[in-house]
Amino acid sequence: MNSELTSLIEKAKAAPRALSVGELVQLLSVESADDRAALSAAGRELKLRQCGKGVAVRGLVEAGNVCAKDCLYCGIRKSNACVKRYRLSADEIVAGAAASKAMGYKSLVIQSGEIESEAHTRFIEEVLERIRPLDLGVTLSLGEQTEEVYARWRAAGATRYLLRIETSNPALYAKIHPSDCSWTRRVDCLRALRRTGYQVGTGVMCALPGQSVEDLARDIVFYGEMDVDMIGMGPFIPAENTPMGMANDGRGMTNEERLRLGLKMIAVTRLYLHDVNIAAATALQALQDDGRELGVLAGANVIMPNVTDVQYRRSYQLYANKPNLDENAAALRDRLDCRLSAIGEHILYDQLGDSRHFAART
Ligand code: SAM
Ligand code: SF4
Q: I need a labelling partner for 25 at 20 to 30 A (CA). Which of 116, 132, 215, 293 fits?
């Protein structure tokens, strides 16, 4: 490892938010196997120092693929006529929550396409009220809503909200979304979530066409400026039947390059922010079978195993090669257990796994 990289890593480890954009670019630009290994090792060292051993888990319920939006990269975008649409009933979501609890997951994520309507708001409220007695940490990832809606869901029992900014560069955001999507509204939503008392999570996709390393460095600075508690980010993977699916035609990055970039983003984000929760996204596993474990070895401390009934998994394919399409939740948990012990880690059963950053700032 070159001495410049060593001193940058030492500087980052000494204090949060210590690096400039230029220094973050330097870290994100390392290419040799030795340098990448050193970066991951530093991310992991800081994860162990900040979060200890163990990986926090959240059972992921993919509550529906009906979406009012047409993000150019997303496999379940409104205009994708090849998708069989579904919405889980309240009973099915509550069953997913109960299954999570029975498996020892003390936290749940409810994610779906974006719907803004009073009927949907009320439906989620009712689901949350029914889940409340299970005493789980509940994360919502239901897209952009008004502050009033966020407040209603918070009052009904949700404690965390994940809304990726996708990219902190408004010009790049405009290139990967239709004109009715607004980067500014997304930032306003993150601020509203913060005011409403949630643990707030955001994140980006890396490996986007037209994205520079400086964009990625500024994404990490954006996380710091927004003072978020949780990061959920992962590589963009082209999806069939989408406008950005043609990046799959061989001109885009290889899966290996996407994975490498995803792992560097985790390590450098850990080095920059120190005490936030960072998820090892399923997209990493779509790129390589042990991708999520590599994410943990680079500094991630959260994994979200799927607990959705297998009959719906094929209808919630955001990108190509989605893993675990046929394995039920218990089998996935057992496999994750084995995989984590193989890298000297383990599932943190029956623990909420709240963000240490949130605890510190409140
Ligand atoms: N609809 C909500 C929203 O957009 O915030 C939540 C669900 S959405 C499917 C969750 C995330 O999936 C998005 O924030 C986006 O980053 C990610 N995603 C969608 N398409 C993707 C793709 N082709 N590759 C990687 N991630 C993708
Ligand atoms: Fe809908 Fe979210 Fe996909 Fe955009 S990323 S099309 S909002 S599900």
A: 293
